[in-house]
Amino acid sequence: MKSEGKDQTSTLKRQVDEARTEFFAAMDDDFNTPRALAAYILIVGIVEEHGKSLSTESAVMLLETMKELSSTLGLLETDSVQRREFLELVNMLTSLRDELRAKREYALSDRLREQMQKAGVIVEDEAK
């Protein structure tokens, strides 16, 4: 049974390596995106075909390869997620600062503004 698992893993690794090589060859061929996507879809097909019967080692290998290829294609927009989270944090801190000012806790409000400025967020007070 263990030899079956090793055989499956080595077969899958070979198939994934071939698809990965084809993917990057397509990208090197004047960014031939349709050809690259076809190679990516081959890997998706491997995942669908084997599904829950994948060993942990095979699943990790497939996941890492899919992440790498997805990132190359710009399918995983982690920067936009990080940017959205950053903006949410800035909005929360700005609201907190507004609450502090409304309670006339100016010293704490000023400290928060200074810390935000150190992080590159410029906060300008407006006269009410």
Number of E strands: 0
Query: What is the string of SSEs from the N terminus onward?
Result: HHHHH
Cα Rg: 25 Å
Largest sheet: none
N-to-C terminal Cα separation, in Å? 75 Å
| Strand composition percent | under 5%
| The level-1 CATH class of the largest domain | Mainly Alpha
Low-confidence stretches: none
Determine the fraction of residues in helical runs and give it as a percent range: over 70%
| Number of individual domains | 2
- Tally the helices: what do you get? 5
Secondary-structure topology with pairs:
Layout: H1 2-28, H2 33-50, H3 56-73, H4 78-102, H5 106-118
Helix pairs in contact: 1-2, 1-3, 2-3, 4-5
Please provide a written account of the structure.
The N and C termini lie far apart (75 Å). With 128 residues, the chain is an all-alpha fold. It is built from five helices and no strands. The protein folds into two domains: 2-76, Four Helix Bundle (Hemerythrin (Met), subunit A), CATH 1.20.120; 79-118. It is elongated, with a radius of gyration of 25 Å. The longest helix is centred in the first third of the chain and has 27 residues, at 2-28.
